[in-house]
Amino acid sequence: MRDQSSSEADFPESLLSADAAARTALVQGFAGAEPSGSEDASQEASYAFAGFWIRVGAALLDGLFLTGISFLIFNPLRRAFTAGPDVFSYIDLLEIVFDFAYAILLTWWTGQTLGKLITGIRVVNARQHRSQLTLGQVLLREVVGKFLSALPLGLGYLWAGWNRKKQGWHDLIARTYVIRDSKRT
Question: Which intervals hold domain RDD (predicted)?
Fold first, then answer.
């Protein structure tokens, strides 16, 4: 029999309630602990995790694309429908929605934005390696996770530079990896 003082973390996740399993998995993810299943470990070994600098390159390419869209589409609309550059208008709101939709929808549908496609990297689900990212997972990564990663002077983004699996805080929160895309080679 087990001692009454043992913690929940000693039990296999399959024996815990769904809430307790999620809590222990989240703690393991932030602590950088090894995955519990051998299938997970073998799948991780086959990944070539994308490092910090290639991810920066992809983000810069995405920024260039979105800036181009702003100059070509939103700036002419802004000049045509607003009083001046100091006024926040519906066009500005539309541009913000477009920027979020770009990141969220492309990541959800393909695991790649245009910048990630050009650099040959992809966002994948860390839990179910062959399954597509869920919309909730993408929203958690792209909205909540990236906001939290940016707050302490971008430390959450820099985290990918020294994390063993090259995960930023937004990846750890949403349980995702950014890998080099094997379909490209």
Answer: 50-174
From 21, 102, 89, 19, select the one nearest 61 (Cα to Cα). 102
Integer Cα distance of 94 and 96 in angstroms = 5
Tell how many helices (H) and how many strands (E) occur in the chain: 10, 2
- Cα atoms found within 13 Å of the Cα of residue 15, Cβ hemisphere only: 6
pTM for this prediction: 0.71
CA distance 144 to 67: 23
Instruction: Quote the CA–CA distance of 185 and 169 in Å, as a whole number.
Output: 28
Cite the beta strand spans of 68-151 per DSSP E.
121-125
Range 73-91 burial, b when 16+ CB lie within 10 A, else e: ebeeebeeeeeeeeeeeeb
Contacts of 130 (CB under 8 A, 6+ apart): none
Structure confidence by residue, pLDDT tens digits, 154-167: 999 999 999 999 99
The domain ranges of the chain are 49-184
Query: Tokens 């950088």 sit at which residue?
Result: 32
